[in-house]
Amino acid sequence: MFNGIGPLELVTIIVLAVLVFGPDKLPKVIQDVTRTIRKIREFSESAKHDIRQELGPEFKDFEFEDLNPKTYLRKQLDNEDLGLKEIRNGFDLKKEMAEVTDAVNGRDGESSAASSSSSASSSGGRIDMTKKPEAPGGDERPVFDADAT
Predict the structure, then answer these.
(1) Measuring CA to CA, how many Å separate 94 from each of 32, 65, 107, 121?
(2) I want to staple 102 with a disulfide (CB 3.0 to 4.6 A). Which of 17, 67, 107, 123 is the partner?
(3) Is 29 among the domain residues?
(4) Distances from the Cα of 70 to the Cα of 30, 74, 80, 144, angstroms
């Protein structure tokens, strides 16, 4: 309940409560707060029980925590019936990146596959995306047009 409250914050709350309510009324206020919290918990538990009873036996495994989207997704991703792990393992990201790089550089598939496999084997299976592609025409630069800029 007090997961985010440290000892300094707790002492500050106690000092403020004593200053606001006074030492005479503080025990009564604490009793009222605990009684209210207890009633809220009882109300929520009875509401959960009523909802489970109304849903029927086909929803006996229903947990209210499943209504949280993060919890629901985590359960569904761990579910083996969907085959998501097979789909996830079916992608070869290195091969896809090499194909995209080759397409951007304008190389054909056969020569790029050989060059990417040789470069991938020499670099430990990694593609160096920091290297600039080599221009096929050599070191020719386009003519600078000062009026165009």
Answers:
(1) 63, 38, 17, 12
(2) 107
(3) yes
(4) 35, 6, 18, 55
b/e sequence 19-39, b meaning 16+ C-beta within 10 Å: eeeeeeeeeeeeeeeeeeeee
Determine how many CB atoms are found less than 10 A away from the CB of residue 67.
Answer: 9
pLDDT in tens, 6-41: 889 989 988 998 899 888 998 999 999 999 999 999
Of 86, 110, 142, the one marking the end of a domain is 86
The domain containing residue 24 runs over which residues?
7-86
The total number of structural domains in the chain stands at: 2
Rounded Cα distance between 122 and 55, Å, is 62
